[in-house]
Design brief:
three-stranded mixed β-sheet; 165 residues; TM2; elongated; mainly alpha
Length: 165
């Protein structure tokens, strides 16, 4: 059953090449001068920058979409490369990310002293996790309390002390 489950590993995607233009600079330009298309001039998109300049940021709608696109890291330069995300070491220039942005869940991470698990073992563990019922123990405890037949005995009927005739 687990032979047909798709498993994506960090090595199944090719490395991505980013632009030498910075995402942080483009975002800053877009926020403060984006209505005039300055961030598009920075990215090398001269024609759309001019169009944005003369339409006031595409009547604000185009500007808002560009700000969100840059913020999400999906904005591309004139050559089609995504703008470079910020790096802790401040590295600039066109670079490749050898490990694409894929982060394994904590239970799938391989520790240094563990042998790497096969894709089949990972699929088996994922299937077990999906089929595991977190309430099964609680239901079993309640069934033991109620008895094997699953019925709770009804309390005896009480006759009211003050009955009027």
């Amino acid at each position: 059953m687990t032979d047909y489950l798709p498993i994506e590993t960090p090595h199944s995607r090719p490395p991505e090449t980013f632009s030498h233009r910075s995402q942080v600079v483009a975002f800053t330009l877009a926020v403060f001068l984006g209505m005039f298309g300055v961030h598009r001039f920075y990215a090398g998109k001269i024609l759309s920058g001019l169009l944005m300049f003369f339409t006031g940021g595409g009547f604000v709608l185009w500007w808002a979409i560009d700000v969100m696109t840059i913020l999400m890291g999906r904005f591309r330069d004139a050559q089609g490369y995504r703008l470079a995300p910020p790096t802790p070491d401040g590295q600039q220039g066109r670079r490749q990310i050898t490990n694409p942005p894929h982060h394994a869940r904590p239970d799938q991470r391989t520790l240094a002293h563990q042998a790497p698990r096969s894709e089949e073992a990972l699929a088996e563990e994922e299937l077990d996790r999906l089929l595991d019922d977190p309430l099964a123990d609680e239901f079993a405890r309640l069934e033991r309390e109620m008895g094997q037949d699953g019925h709770v005995e009804a309390p005896e009927e009480r006759v009211p002390a003050h009955s009027h005739r």
